[in-house]
Amino acid sequence: LEQFEDIGDLRNWVSGSKRSGKTVVFVPTMGALHEGHSACVRTGRAVMDSALVVSIYVNPTQFAPGEDLDRYPRSPDRDLALCRQWGVDAVFTPRQRDIYPENRPGPVWVAVENLTDPMCGAGRPGHFRGVATVVTKLFNIVSPDVAVFGQKDAQQALVIREVVKQLFLPVELRLAPINREPDGLARSSRNRYLNEEQRRVAVSLYSSLRHALDFVRSGERDPEKVTAAVAAELAAGDGVAVEYVELRNAGDLSALETVEGKAILAVAATVGTTRLIDNVVFRVDKNESVEETLLF
Ligand code: AMP
Questions:
Q1: Is 37 considered catalytic here?
Q2: Sorting pLDDT into bands at 50, 70 and 90, what band is 91?
């Protein structure tokens, strides 16, 4: 396992890998690695003859003031051990001062409009600007052929897809399915904030989505009825505060009049003080069958 802190050193290694015919695959992360990240690595590993780079960087600009930047979990030694175990080829841990230099007239931002208005964008102002900006910087440093994101952060994946498309970034995006705990809770670095009782309650994000999918399968086509059912189920949990429940078009997150085509049902809720998100993406086809699917 190679380790790079320096942008130039990482770039030399990437160039060498490309010269020897490898496809460079990139999985950006904020560390505190878990099986969810491993799902992204596995999706990346499906690319033949690849050199796989994982970046570990807690990006300050995607945290709003008052969010958990200062206490975001960090486990650098364990992260390296996991990367070794997962067969990652290189780990990139860039320096703060290289990603956001201070000796410049002012910062450069990548902002995606409209797509970032609803859902997590509404509750976390500036979040997706921070994400789009750091991912663009990382893409320009790593210059991967393929980059992998998790469907867990569905709106993020759509935002990155738009950045790649509209800024003509020469990278192919792949999506990893949501990796879950045995009881269904989506794996997340933030799950380690949960105490035992909160951990038990947290599974309601997943179970309420499953029940909603059954509701749609039974013929319900009114988006508001579906989201209201999810919100009610979540609100019944002790210490659960619903931030949003949204059922939208899975391509552009536009509002739906009726449940049809490819749709995403997404939730955000705070359990205790921990903000959790989850989603299901499904397609209602012409014969009204409802199939779960990947976002793209
Ligand atoms: P993070 O370190 O939380 O920024 O996540 C890094 C990448 O891993 C993102 O593309 C996430 O969507 C993905 N990821 C995080 N958790 C999961 C999960 N449970 N299943 C699949 N992908 C995940």
A1: yes
A2: very high
